Amino acid sequence: MAISLLVGPSGVGKTTACGIVAKESSIKVIDLDEFLRQKIGVKSLSAHLAEVGDEQFFTLSKEGIEEIEKDASSDLIIVVGAGSINLPVSHSWYQSKNLLALVGDPQVIYERGNRQKHHPSISGFIKTEFNEARRCLYKNAGSMIDVTFKTPEAVADEIIRIIKG
């Protein structure tokens, strides 16, 4: 049984690719943000993050991941939102896990989705989503997939190949 944490900047395609993975394989997918939203009973996890701060949010995320892992009975991917990796001190804990990072060209990722809603400029997007601490975590993941020129289906196939080994 393999348990992987999927990380990557906002808009890289984590949710889309994992939706395909869940449909086309026996790998279970759990979105950590959705799990935490339900667990703590809030509508907006980003509002909760702003309220409690990065340190408390990391603690909540870590506890959620550990709870999910404890109950795992099959291959599993936990999709980790960017909010829980904001705190550089959390990176050593994340790096002790089986990390799979989706990465890509910031300009391409920015243009793919509706990133302009949260980041009016490409420079703001890069400053937030590709800051040094996050890039360091992505670079040190056990596996990394560059999604720049891949379809969601190709990314999902690669994720399945990595998980199933």
UniProtKB/TrEMBL annotation:
Superkingdom, natural source: Bacteria
GO MF annotations, alphabetized: kinase activity
Record bears the keyword 4Fe-4S: no
Any Pfam family: SKI
Keyword Kinase: yes
InterPro entries in the record: P-loop_NTPase (IPR027417), Shikimate/glucono_kinase (IPR031322)
Keywords of the record: Kinase, Transferase
Record's protein name: Shikimate kinase
